[in-house]
Amino acid sequence: MKALVVGYGSIGKRHVRILNELGILVGLVSRRILDYKPIFNSIEPAIKSFSPNIIVVANETSKHLETLNLIMEKNYEGIILIEKPLFQSSNITSFDNENIFVGYNLRFHPLLQKLKTEIKNQKIISCSVYVGQYLPTWRPSADYRKTYSASKMLGGGVLRDLSHELDYLQWIFGSWKRLISLGGKFSSLEIESEDSYSLLTETELCPLITIEMNYLDKICQRFMIVNTEDYTYKIDFINGTFQKNSEIQYVKVSRDETYRKQYLAIINKNFDQLCTFEEGLSVIKMVESIERSNEEKGWVYNAE
């Protein structure tokens, strides 16, 4: 099996490494001068001469749509995995291709999967989600001011950067019905994108969800609390804990495990838990609705 990775930033490097560890021959598309083979400076010759089974789009979010169009123009019939977020905007023509998926790999996190199974037949009352990390420490080897996270034009900002939460909440609790938000650039970080957002929403299966996401948290926290009629659950992604009322279990998860499981699902053609193109697009539509709510200072309702 062969995979082609488009883009060689920090996330592209991770995809290349993990795919190699899985024994997959990996080609790379990058205009940078790199000591790597096989490498191509554009997609067209890569598809023609390398014939990949999987293409991973891991360049800047602002280039995802252009890259996908180039791939589709070549009548490529293999699997396409696009890094999250899918696009900057939802204002695009949908692609009629069941082989396009979006890299919301947190769906494969053991804590999240255990929670989804536990609450499946319970009455959900409320949910609270928090995710925050101080942007300057996010990528220690890079100047945070020059990363895509700092640029709204390149697809940065907490809503898109931390959109895993928006995906897995809909994966577990169904589509959002209405929402209201407050967010923006409040700190002294030298960025052009938003550094904080808070959100209140209702979904098909949960009447009350609160979400807070930011680039500010020096502790680095990512957790989720769910209240059902009989139980309170808390999963802590950073500390690896699953709590059900007073009972706590520890689950050891390596940094690469969710990526590896996502690829194994693709290799074995077990697509059920992967984020589809339409689901990825719905996350972008939710992001735009959150931004609209913030601008208009009121509730936004899901028309779909």
Automatic annotation (TrEMBL):
Signal peptide segment: none
Gene3D superfamilies the UniProt entry points to: Dihydrodipicolinate Reductase, domain 2 (3.30.360.10), NAD(P)-binding Rossmann-like Domain (3.40.50.720)
SUPFAM superfamilies assigned: Glyceraldehyde-3-phosphate dehydrogenase-like, C-terminal domain, NAD(P)-binding Rossmann-fold domains
Domain of life: Bacteria
Protein name: Oxidoreductase domain-containing protein
Species of provenance: Bacillus methanolicus PB1
